[in-house]
Amino acid sequence: MIQAVGWDLDDTLYDRNLPYLAVYQYMEENVIETGIGFETFNYFYQMNSDIEFRRYTDGQASVDQYRNNRVLMTYAQFGFTIKKQDAILFNQKYEEAKEDIVLRPGAKDCLDLLQKAGLKQFLLTNGPAQQAHKVDLLGLEDYFDDKNIFISSQMGAAKPASEIFQKVEEALELNSATTLYIGDNYEADMKGASNAGWQGLFLNVHDKSVEDVSDKIIICKDMDDIYKSLISKLEEKK
InterPro entries, alphabetically (predicted)? Predict the structure, then answer.
């Protein structure tokens, strides 16, 4: 049984790889040609981004340092030295490409399903305050407003810390046992939600292998799977 559903944002409601692919192609064509395939480059870039984001949330780096260091580190791992100005350019191009983000196919159907069922929906995302702008870009105003958008940089904690899930519970007066969270990152989203007593739908778009899956977590490969799982959860409510 579920009464409230929370959504992750990046790589869940939209495909974060698409704007990064545009940036990667720009850099290869105009700044430095590495010859590294996008999937390989992006794998290490996202890994470095997670590392630097943790430093940022721990107060060890500014938001600019976090953004620039993840770029510099990634190129360095492949034996390429780029200037700080190139890292700044990388991030500028990402901000431009990000303006063209769109919902994943099937995401709107899931949002509409929950809205028609009368369930409370909210966003819980790691990142800087600018995450809120993506709500506008994706046309999500009908589903989320300021009261049900939670961004880690504004909350003093980041997923998977139990603290951030507890703060959402308190703000929205949720019952942990009837709260469901949907996300693409098993460590941050699913383990965090499970530790908070929430149920979870793991959108495994990166085809990650996971072990010791909690019985509160259902693994889904795409939004069609998410939709079917939501239907099943709503049937439990009746």
Answer: HAD-like_hydrolase, HAD-like_sf, HAD-SF_hydro_IA, HAD_sf, PGP-like_dom2
Question: pLDDT (tens digit, 9 = 90+) per residue, 162-181?
Answer: 999 999 999 999 999 999 99
| CA dihedral sign, ordered 28, 63, 96, 11 | positive
Euclidean distance between CA atoms 227 and 225, whole angstroms: 5
Tokens of 138: 């994706």
The distance of Cα 26 from the centroid of its chain, to the nearest Å, equals 24
DSSP string, 134-175: HHHHTT-TTT--GGGEEEGGGTT--TT-HHHHHHHHHHHT--
Provide the pLDDT for residue 57.
85
Residue type, 134: K
The token pair at 3 is 């009464």
The whole-angstrom separation of Cα 60 and Cα 51 is: 11
Report the DSSP pairing between strands 149-151 and 120-125.
Answer: parallel
Q: Single out the residue of 43, 84, 41, 44 nearest to residue 64, CA to CA.
A: 84
pTM metric for this prediction:
0.90
Residue 128's Cβ-count burial label (10 Å; 0-12, 13-18, 19+) is middle
Residue 237 parent element (H or E) = helix 223-237
In 3D space, the residue among 51, 48, 38 whose CA is nearest the CA of residue 77 turns out to be: 48
With 90 as the cut, is the pLDDT of residue 15 above it? yes
Q: What distance, in Å, lies between the first and last C-alpha atoms of the chain?
A: 8
In this prediction, residues 127-136 reach a mean pLDDT of 91
